[in-house]
Write a structure and sequence with these properties.
This protein is α/β, with parallel strands linked by helices. 64% of the residues lie in helices and 9% in strands.
Length: 602
């Protein structure tokens, strides 16, 4: 069983080079823009490196001994200004041209991750923590933009400038200038790499604790009512604060170690610049260098070391970003438990017959849920499944939707094994009203129309009428545009379930599943909805998973389940005549209903 775990440190075996290669297709779609951005980058660096060369010539002209014969070098000043302007122009052109590449890559990765998450099995989503995944998805998609930003706007330009400066130093000056420059850069990079690797685990722990705290906050807010029921506001805040306390300690260690790194980098740069200036000063004194050469060397070193000083920060951020990117690519690498074959055909609907043949299933290896399940749901038939909680009733619906694959046996739809047809085509043929109805935080109209996007308003209203909720919706101030709140919290349980029934009616699937669809309704609403469902189900194959036996007395076939097995099977009357489990359940429910009726009359 595939499982994705969140830990305080990243999982071993992170593959940064492989992840960077996976980014390449996202940016190469706009290869023309990439090439223009790279060309602009080179031109901007040529202009920037050319500035001190022109400035040297200006200084040397003004340093001539005969000041009376020196004229203002207008052309050099114009060239100096043009290089300044060109450096800025090409930098901005690079940013503008590359913006489409960056943000398109973020969009594509976000879409790919969300699409993949929707394809993952129900097993995965039952064990995930939504808050953690949302935070990792946010950081991971942002990492694409950040990595491209670091590479194209920081790392590559810095090394391009370094190469140009090194070429000028080797060509015009003694080798010791280049040697000091190369040595300083080498020591700087080595120091940065070593110290950054040492302090990375503080950042990893910060990220893990950040995700953990975010997950705890989201969980507590999503379960707001439960928190209130048990007066656990203080407990939730305390749990959240404990995690933030650990995060605070990790953040302080991260900042302290970064200060050590910054000081070391500054010391290395200061030492290199000092040696360069000593050599350049000696050159001016002994006449081998002009005052313009001194200014040129100093300016070039400052131009080189200024971005190099940021390179340490960029490297650290790149490592952090690669860690964030690794999390999102781990999501993409999560294997699909339920997947279609390469050439899987679409399901061919003929009559709508459902057949379970010797089906065995377990969520975990050590606990079997279904054992040798055999039954046939004939076209147009209403088949009901009843049993105590935990008997495996709802698991039948999950298997029919192929949220899981059976361990043994097979499930057939019109003679076709559902594992050998596409999941999309299978689920298009089946509509369900689940036991726990969850609605989107959108309007009532949106939630009903979700079953068939693009349906007309008249069709939506007709579905609502059949579900006995149209009049209620019309009575609301905003009617069908009324927002239902997060997870439908603004509606009662019965109202949510009637919306779910309207939604499944609008879908128009030939096979319907009602998983305790009237469990949250009062007797009056239940009666009216049962009449509507009876009308809708006349032309459908219907599987009813029921707790209230009064809702399925008209079923052509009733299956009684106990501990994952079918223990009784027949019509309502025949099962009562057997005086078995079904008859016992019927008697107990009748007694409960009579007691409730008597209590209400009092």
């Amino acid at each position: 069983m595939s499982q994705f775990r969140y830990t305080d440190a990243p999982q071993g075996g992170r593959q940064d080079i492989r992840n960077l290669k996976r980014v390449f297709p996202y940016i190469w779609e706009y290869k023309g823009r990439v090439l223009i951005a790279l060309l602009s980058l080179v031109l901007s660096k040529v202009a920037i490196v050319g500035i001190p060369l022109v400035f040297k010539e200006i200084i040397d002209i003004f340093d001539q001994l005969d000041k009376s014969r020196v004229s203002v070098p207008i052309l050099l000043f114009l060239l100096y200004g043009a290089l300044r302007l060109g450096g800025s122009l090409f930098n901005e052109l690079r940013d503008a041209v590359f913006a489409r590449v960056r943000y398109h890559a973020m969009r594509m990765l976000s879409n790919q991750v969300l699409q993949h998450l929707h394809k993952l099995s129900l097993r995965y989503h039952l064990q995930r923590r939504t808050g953690n995944i949302i935070r990792d998805l946010e950081r991971g998609t942002n990492s694409i933009s950040q990595i491209l930003n670091y590479l194209v706007f920081n790392i590559v330009p810095t090394f391009a400038e370094f190469a140009l400066v090194a070429f000028i130093l080797l060509r015009q000056y003694e080798a010791r200038f280049a040697i000091v420059t190369f040595t300083t850069v080498a020591i700087y990079i080595a120091f940065t790499l070593l110290v950054t690797e040492w302090r990375m685990h503080f950042r990893h722990r910060m990220n893990a604790l950040d995700s953990k705290a975010n997950g705890q906050a989201v969980d507590s807010l999503m379960n707001y009512e439960t928190v209130k029921y048990f007066n656990n506001e203080a407990f939730e805040v305390r749990r959240y604060d404990n995690t933030l306390g650990e995060w605070e300690n990790a953040a302080v260690k991260s900042q302290t170690s970064m200060s050590i790194l910054n000081f070391g980098q500054g010391a290395i740069i200061a030492l290199g610049l000092t040696l360069i200036m000593i050599y350049a000063g000696q050159g001016v004194v002994d006449g081998s260098m002009t005052l313009g050469d001194l200014v040129l060397v100093n300016t070039m070193m400052l131009q080189l070391f200024m971005p190099l000083s940021f390179l340490g920060i960029i490297y650290r951020m790149l490592k952090h970003t690669l860690a964030d990117m690794d999390m999102v690519f781990r999501l993409l690498d999560e294997e699909l438990e339920i997947k279609d074959g390469k050439t899987v055909p679409a399901l061919q609907h003929k009559q709508g017959e459902i057949r379970f043949e010797h089906v065995y299933f377990s969520y975990q290896d050590d606990r079997e849920i279904l054992h040798d399940i055999n039954f046939v749901l004939k076209p147009g038939q209403k088949l009901a499944v009843v049993g105590h909680s935990g008997s495996g009733k709802s698991t039948l619906a999950r298997l029919l939707f192929r949220f899981y694959d059976v361990n043994k046996g097979r499930i057939l739809y019109d003679g076709q094994d559902i594992r050998e047809v596409s999941q999309d085509s299978l689920r298009q043929m089946i509509g369900i009203v689940p036991q726990d109805t969850v609605l989107f935080n959108e309007s009532i109209r949106y939630n009903i129309e979700y079953a068939r996007p693009g349906a007309s308003f008249d069709e939506i209203c007709e579905a609502a009428r059949l579900a006995n909720i149209h009049d209620f919706i019309e009575s609301l101030p905003e009617g069908y545009e009324t927002a239902v709140g997060e997870r439908g919290l603004k509606l009662s349980g019965g109202e949510k379930q009637r919306l779910a029934i309207a939604r499944v009616i609008l879908k128009g699937s030939p096979v319907l599943i009602f998983d305790e669809a009237t469990s949250s309704l009062d007797s009056k609403s239940e009666k009216s909805i049962l009449e509507a469902l009876g009308t809708v189900a006349q032309s459908h194959t219907t599987l009813v998973i029921a707790h209230r036996l009064s809702t399925i007395v008209d079923a052509e076939q009733i299956l009684v389940m106990d501990r994952g097995r079918i223990v009784e099977q027949g019509t309502h009357q025949s099962l009562l005549a057997e005086e078995g489990m079904y008859a016992e359940m019927w008697t107990l429910q009748r007694q409960d209903q009579e007691a409730e009726l008597l209590e209400n009359n009092e």
